[in-house]
Hints:
Strand order of the largest sheet: 1-4-5-3-2
Order of helices and strands: HHHEHEHEHEEH
Helix content: 40-55%
Largest sheet: 5 strands, mixed
Oligomer: single chain
Shape: globular
CATH class of the largest domain: Alpha Beta
Number of domains: 2
Mean pLDDT: 79
Structural class: alpha+beta
Amino acid sequence: MQDHIDELQNIKKQLEEQIRKTQNRPDVPEAEKKEQAGMEYELQAVLNRIREEEAEKNASFTSMIDNVTPLEHDSILLKTPGITKEQAQARRRSAEKEIYREKLALSLEKVVYLEPASVTGFKKTGVQHGVFLKVKNGEYSIRDYIDLHNKTLDQARLAVDQFLSGSYERGYRFVIIIHGKGEFTKPQALLKSFVFHWLKQAEPVLAFHHAMPYHGGPGAVYVLLKKNDQLRQNTRERNS
């Protein structure tokens, strides 16, 4: 946890330095003012996250101290009891979840800002063009959705993280995220831009594209996810 806090502190310093450079200039172009507003928003989100991480760290330490009990003897049990096949599978699934939680560390850095009405998409290497066209046209069955309206940037970041992780774990392949067009935010399309930024980072995501008009158009995005371990096993069993 301390490493994550240190990383957030570094991001905070970088943002403060960038904002300071812009503020010290007499004539700042409108485009840079817009970018500065976005950096100030990002800085506030990072500060909020640092406070949350520090509070969680302190709470965790206090909990550890409260639960400490004196050792009654200095012997240890070297032999561990056997576990069933079901328990081993449960442990493997739990470990897999933790791995993906680590990989879903969505950042607030180097975002590319979109326009409120822009329609675009992205696919990772290896995704077939025909599959991407189906994503673009919304031809897959939508298994779940999340609406990010009225959420702060930091709240949306956590919500997207949990939503993608949970959808992957449940075996959902096609979901939709409603982020809004952001016509009245400063800068415009702020949340929309960050959602696309996060989706490119998220490990389970194969492809995504703005939704069809009847599903929200440029205010929502279709997301295609990888098969989880259980779905891959089921596919292998069917093929064999």
